[in-house]
Structures are given as structure tokens and as C-alpha cells.
Design brief:
The protein is of the alpha/beta class and 309 residues long. Helices cover 33% and strands 26% of the residues. The strands form 3 sheets. It has a 6-stranded mixed beta sheet with strand order 5-6-7-3-8-9, with helices on both faces. Strands 11-12-10-13 form a 4-stranded antiparallel beta sheet, with helices on one face. Strands 2-1-4 form a 3-stranded antiparallel beta sheet, with helices on one face. Helix 3 packs across helix 4. The longest helix has 16 residues. The structure holds adenosine-5'-triphosphate (ATP). This is ABC transporter ATP-binding protein.
């Protein structure tokens, strides 16, 4: 039986053993992950790793070879009003060049049974009211992206899927998109955004799902991923003595892991810079430089996905 999507419903996406083969190519390979409502999830992987194929399977554009992906426990086709459940933006979305932004939205609104007022609401929300009557052929990439987004939002969906939405956006457009997505997640919606560059989603994602060659590499909160890398770089003429102190009399809190990276340099993971400096001072050991190294998430991502830069 099918049911209408209720306002405020929280819909979790669940992929189980999801697999898609195109002839000899296995684009998606036994993939399992969940995407939680109320959060922004980054879907990451190098070019050709299967992100678009996976997202197209979520909305029934592509049929899985085996396994399943459900939204709120249902397959996309089981929703009586799919546009109220899921909105999707794919790169390839195109507009009739001679149609205005308003015409374009009206066509889609009519198809989905949405009133014309919704079109004006979205034009305003997307800051396109001023361009509503202009033909889309003259639209900038940013305007096209916003029109794509408006189209996906016509049914006020509880789940939003965005495939590489930052492509071609300027910094202002990217910042706007980030705050908009955060706002949608704050309303309990499920937001999945794909990218092949971690930096693009690092500032917006709560969780990440990383894939490589169609297989899951990791699925975790972004904070856990960054936690793996935090380090303090210490320059000291007493480096050897510091190693002894840190390993034999560790400070309270996380246990230090120490790497000697030169005669007078150490890298320490675990305790923060203040703890390490206090410990050195307590043992009258000299510190000439102390830097907290921001975790290089991009490096980590490239390592995880086996890419190079
Ligand atoms: N219709 C198709 N027929 C044959 N092979 C396909 C088809 N669609 C995708 N593929 C192949 O499946 C693999 C995964 O492609 P997909 O587009 O899903 O990856 P992606 O991670 O979205 O990449 P990108 O970041 O470049 O968009 C690739 O090897 C691609 O060439």
C-alpha cells in the first residue's frame, strides 16, 4: 500500500547490498549505508566511483542489478506523491532555452500538480524573481543551479539529493547553497550532496559516505574523520627528552602517539597543544615552536579513495 508523505516526516535513506552492473562494468558494488534525516550527508568519491549511479537508483532512474535502496522504508516508486518525498538535482538537468524561469517552473508545477503560487514562492526563495521573465538561455551557471534547485523543491520534499551542485558556482553561490542546505536539514529534511572534492562539502556536511570503485570505504560523522588526523607539531632542542616524558608520563586525557620527524621536531597526536606545553614546562624542557596542525582532510580523503594529487 502507498501513503502520502506527511509534512515534517523524517525519512532515512537505506542502501543494502546495492549493486549495479553495466555489462562488464560494476558501477556500484554491494554498497550499504544510511543517510539520516536532519543532517547534511556528503557523498564522496573520485570521478567514476558510482555516485551518480547510486543517486539515480534512489529515484528509480536506474534499476539495481541486485540489492535495494529505500527512502523511509519505501522504494521511490511506492510514493503516491514522489515530489513531496524526494527532490533531486542532477548536473544534466536542462532547460528549454526559449522558456523563461517562470515558464520552466510552471511546466514542472503542472506536471506535479502544484499551484502557480508555489512557482512564485520558489522564484523568490531562490532570489530569481528579478530574472523570472528572462529566457534561460542567458542564465549564468549559478542561476541555472538555483533554477534546478527550485524545480527539485516544487513539491516541498523531505529528502533532497544534489549531484555535484557546486560545479561552476562562484564562492558567493557556494556559501549561499551551504547555508540553504543547513536550513533544510534543520527542518528535519534529509540532505545528500555528492562531490569528488572533500573541500566542497567539508563546511556543510555532518556525515560523510565515502566510496571508491563502487564500494564503501567509510561512512561516519565528519568529526570522526577529522579526529583521526589532529596533531601538534613541536620544535625543541630537548626533543629526545620530550619523547620520554610524553610516552612514560602521559598527561591526563587521550594517550599521546609520538612521531620523531627530525632531530629537534616531533609530531604528537592525542593531547592538545596546551597539555603538551604544560607537561614540557613541568619537566623544565624547552619548546621553541608549537603548532596545531589542522587535519588535512583532503589528504585523508585522497588516501581513503586511493587517488593522488
Ligand atoms: N549507462 C551506463 N552505461 C555504462 N557504464 C556506465 C553507465 N553509467 C555509468 N557507467 C559507468 O559506471 C561507473 C560509475 O559512474 P558514475 O557516473 O556513477 O560515477 P560518479 O562517481 O558519479 O562519477 P562522476 O563524479 O564523474 O560523475 C563509471 O565507470 C561509468 O563509466
Amino acid at each position: 500500500m502507498t501513503e502520502a508523505t506527511m509534512t515534517g516526516e523524517r525519512l532515512r535513506i537505506e542502501a543494502r547490498h546495492l549493486t549495479k552492473r553495466f555489462g562488464d562494468i560494476t558501477a556500484v558494488d554491494d554498497l550499504g549505508f544510511t543517510v539520516e534525516p536532519g543532517r547534511v550527508t556528503g557523498f564522496l568519491g573520485p570521478n567514476g566511483s558510482g555516485k551518480t549511479t547510486t543517486m539515480r537508483m534512489m529515484i528509480g532512474h536506474i534499476t539495481p542489478t541486485s540489492g535495494s535502496v529505500t527512502i523511509g522504508g519505501k522504494r521511490y516508486r511506492e510514493f503516491t506523491d514522489p515530489s513531496a518525498a524526494v527532490g533531486a538535482v542532477f548536473d544534466a538537468a536542462s532547460f528549454h532555452p526559449d522558456h523563461s524561469a517562470r515558464d520552466h517552473l510552471r511546466v514542472y508545477a503542472a506536471m506535479g500538480g502544484h499551484p502557480d503560487e508555489r512557482v512564485d514562492e520558489l522564484l523568490s526563495l531562490m532570489d530569481l524573481t528579478g530574472a523570472a521573465r528572462r529566457r534561460t538561455r542567458g542564465f549564468s551557471t549559478g542561476m541555472r543551479q538555483r533554477l534546478n534547485l527550485a524545480t527539485a523543491l516544487l513539491g516541498d520534499p523531505r529528502v533532497l539529493l544534489l549531484d555535484e551542485p557546486s560545479n561552476g558556482l562562484d564562492p558567493a553561490g557556494t556559501a549561499w547553497l551551504r547555508s540553504f542546505l543547513r536550513h533544510l536539514a534543520g527542518e528535519g529534511r534529509t540532505v545528500l550532496i555528492s562531490s569528488h572534492v572533500l573541500g566542497e562539502i567539508q563546511q556543510v556536511a555532518d556525515d560523510v559516505v565515502v566510496i571508491r570503485q563502487g564500494r564503501l570505504v567509510t561512512a561516519a560523522p565528519l568529526s570522526e574523520l577529522s579526529g583521526m588526523e589532529a596533531a601538534v607539531l613541536i620544535r625543541s632542542p630537548d626533543a629526545e627528552a620530550l619523547v620520554q616524558v610524553f610516552t612514560r608520563q602521559p598527561p591526563a586525557g587521550p594517550e599521546p602517539r609520538v612521531e620523531r620527524i627530525g632531530p629537534d621536531q616531533l609530531r604528537v597526536w592525542g593531547p592538545d597543544a596546551a597539555h603538551l606545553a604544560d607537561l614540557a614546562a613541568a619537566h623544565h624542557l624547552r619548546i621553541h615552536g608549537l603548532t596545531t596542525e589542522e587535519p588535512d582532510l583532503e589528504r585523508l580523503f585522497l588516501d581513503l579513495t586511493g587517488s593522488t594529487r
